[in-house]
Amino acid sequence: MTVLLPRRQLLGAASGAALMLNAPVAQAAAPRFAIGETDFLLDGQPLQIRCGEMHFARVPREYWRHRLQAIKAMGMNAVCAYLFWNYHEWREGQYQWSGQRDAVEFCKLAQAEGLWVILRPGPYACAEWEMGGLPWWLLKHPGDAFLRSRDDAFVQPARRWLKEVGRVLGGQQISHGGPILMVQVENEYGFLSDDKDYLRVMRQAVLDGGFDVPLFQCNPTNAVGRTHIPELFTVANFGSDPATGFKALDALQKGPKMCGEYYSGWFDTWGAPHRRGDNTRAIQDIDAMLNAGGSFSLYMAHGGTTFGLWGGCDRPFRPDTTSYDYDAPIGEAGWVGEKFRTYRECLAKHLKPGEVLPEPPARLPVMTIPSFALTETAPVLANLPAAAIQAESPKNIEQYDISRGLVAYRVTLPAGPAGRLEAANARDLAWVFVGGRLAGTMDTRHRRFAVDIPARKADTVVEILLYTIARVNFGMEVHDRKGLQGPVMFKTKAGARELKGWEIRAVDFGADGELPPLRWQAKRPSGAAAPAFWRGSFDAATAADTFLDMSTWGQGIVWINGRCLGRYWSIGPTQTMYLPGPWIKAGRNEVVVLDLTGPRANRIEGKSLPVLDQLQPDRDLARPPSTARPRLAGLTPVFTGQFAAGPATQDVRFDAPAHGRQLCIEVLDTFDGQPHAAIAELALLGADGKPLNQTAWTIAYASSEEARKEDGSALNAINGQATDYWHTAYSGNARPVGTPRLIVDLGASADIAGIRYTPRQGPDSVTGRIRRYRVFVGDKLVDQD
Ligand code: GLA
User: Fold this and answer.
1) pLDDT band at 527 (very low <50, low <70, confident <90, very high)
2) Signal peptide: which range, if any (predicted)?
3) DSSP helix/strand/coil, 407
4) Four-CA torsion 381, 385, 391, 396, nearest 10 degrees
């Protein structure tokens, strides 16, 4: 039976809360889906949303139905889908919606499988996706704060995008017979800013796109209040403590309680330990949310794989792995096991009368591929396009209309003594060759932009090969311009001069990792470490899923039959690449590998199991071990204080702004009395009370970091994610070494008026929440040998 509710109780998109009260009584039938005062309402009946997140761009189209069936069988009644703007508009004005990008087909499949759809079209998404889903060409416009702001340079293209989304997907709304129940505006905007008018502009853009279902916004529990506006329903994102999350929502608005992202696990970044979710806690939390009458979306129900070159990057610069398994209940290859079973059991208790759980779909076949060699090579530097850009001093690649890829920079250095070549910036990694020999590398992760150059008897060509990995997907740092950026200086004892007159050649991999024309040769390039493409093949009688073992290679990209599979990096923790069966042909299959550092063995085999948790730090680019020691003796702290108990984010203003390049937080004691410290996030506030941009930040010193039992890396304190944290070492024989201290280097001196501290999240029993502390600021707070 359909119960019609008074309009007053309904929150539809076109009517803000205030407007609703004035809505005429005599109107057309109530919308099929609405947000009531205590519940979501479907045809007038309360609906608890049990949603699972899956990104269709991260799952081979041939498997969409299989994964949707698994999500349904887990006990979900909805699927949450981001649209990544840059995936559909890599070149300005050229929209792509077919094949793997066919969002309409995805919605139709979801509907056919009995799942509602929650659409999250951005314009910003985050999601460990290149630039958080924003298109790179926006960066042709100057400025470091215009993205996700009311600046026209952002608003106009974003409006066009949302209009296009409406054109394509408007017909998929429940109001038009489709499965889309609700549409999200922006993503966790309160994490970035408090500009409510920006959200109003984006909301209007979604309405102008023709959406007429309810619109909502999401924010982490900590930030739900910052950007709440009555016109948008608010949901809270968290990975623990649903009671606090729901309470925060209650304080803001009338309406059902919903967790917009409950984390089943977490994503991995290259070089850091594999993450796992706490399954027992997740089940308890979900059970509690449903018992409280709430709704939730599981991020991720099925993570899948960030195929191609779409991986994002955490702040300050920690690129995400290609596997987006996420430790989700439906694994990267669509497998379900014990974890899935526990979710299914929990959700089965919360079905509506008459609802039946289907059986999960059968596991797809897996095969192994015997080891095969890649014996043809094409050295990168010998395969660059002939056409070159001439530049006095290199600018970011977006200025040259290069989107991403390999960029080679050539300049001539006259004869002379040894010296140091120093760029203003080099994103992301670069190999510097002098007279054809590798002199050193530049590495954004450590903000290492200088290389020692030997003495030269004659004019010598310096060639710098730069490789872009991913644009940061979080915070203001999404203004992540790539390339070698001048001025590039050459410094000797006698002085410094700028290197001018550059030739720039690029292999632009474009949207889908298009391979350039390559001249293959039958033998290995001289010097195993030369960056090169490699080619080989394997024969397949059948086509089934497999996991390519890349552990003996260095770092680069894999293509299968011309299709870009993704990036690999043998530092781990991911060592295998999921290769879906439908992308394999019966007969001969061609594999091309770009390897920048050179393989230990130029062979690949297909395994039947993934390897997601094996670090090989020895495979990383050479870097001298850190000898950093704090240098605080005799210094007066700029502030001494005491944090409030609990998980809430706290802003602290110093008595007077301090000036310096480095900031040390020294932990005097913690709430649980243990000698361990943890910090989820540490932001620094400028004179205007807003967080300083963290693009150039590094960790100058951490007294210790837990690296084995969990990822307690100090970088977690400055990556913008409240869910992970820096934790002092505790596993094995690690004993706390003296006072816990964390020293952040800002890259340049700045005025620091205060700090924004986010404690480790979770219940009050977690270790490491800081009570009393001191802060030091100075240009040099560490000594180094
Ligand atoms: C945030 C974002 C998501 C994703 C998760 C981490 O909550 O909203 O897009 O990036 O963090 O996986």
Assistant:
1) low
2) 1-28
3) strand
4) -80
371-376+540-619 homologous superfamily: Galactose-binding domain-like (2.60.120.260)
- Nearest atom (ligand 1) to Cα of 267: 12
Tokens of 397: 């690649």
Contacts 24+ apart (CB under 8 A), 397-400: 397/468, 397/481, 397/482, 397/483, 397/506, 398/136, 398/137, 398/139, 398/140, 398/481, 398/482, 398/483, 399/140, 400/504, 400/506
Are the beta carbons of 68 and 55 closer than 8 angstroms? no
Whether 12 contacts 34, CB under 8 Å:
yes
Atom from ligand 1 closest to the CA of residue 128: 10
Q: How confident is the model at residue 201 (pLDDT cuts 50, 70, 90)?
A: very high
The closest residue, in CA terms, to atom 6 on ligand 1 is 127
CB 306 within 8 A of CB 324: yes
pLDDT digits (tens, 9 = 90+) for 543-568: 999 999 999 999 999 999 999 999 99
Question: What's at 22, amino acid-wise?
Answer: N
Contact 521, 538 (CB under 8 A): no
**In this structure, are residues 110 and 179 in contact, taking their beta carbons and an 8 Å threshold?**
yes
Structural domain boundaries in the chain: 47-348, 371-376+540-619, 384-508, 629-783
Does any ligand 1 atom lie closer than 6 A to the CB of residue 724? no
Q: Annotated catalytic residue: which of 188, 231, 681, 705?
A: 188
SS3 682: strand
Q: Which CATH number fits domain 384-508: 2.60.120.260, 2.40.40.20, 2.60.40.1120, 1.10.3720.10?
A: 2.60.120.260
Ligand 1 centroid, distance to 266 Cα (angstroms): 9
Residue type, 171: G
567-609 pLDDT, tens digit per residue, is 999 999 999 999 999 999 999 999 999 999 999 999 999 999 9
pTM: 0.89
Question: Is there a common fold for 47-348 and 371-376+540-619?
Answer: no
The average pLDDT across 649-660 equals 96
Please state the CATH superfamily assignment of the domain spanning residues 47-348 in this structure. Answer: Glycosidases (3.20.20.80)
Sort residue 131 into left (φ over 0), alpha (ψ -120 to 50) or beta. left
From the alpha carbon of 125, which atom of ligand 1 is closest?
Answer: 9
With cut-offs at 50, 70 and 90, classify the pLDDT of residue 696: confident
CA of 126 to the centre of ligand 1 (A): 6
Residues 715 and 702: their CA atoms lie apart, in Å, by: 10
Spatial CA neighbour of 179 closest among 83, 236, 251, 103: 103
pLDDT at 87 over 70: yes
Question: Smallest Cα–Cα separation from 598: which of 332, 387, 374, 426?
Answer: 374
pLDDT (0 to 100) of residue 25: 42
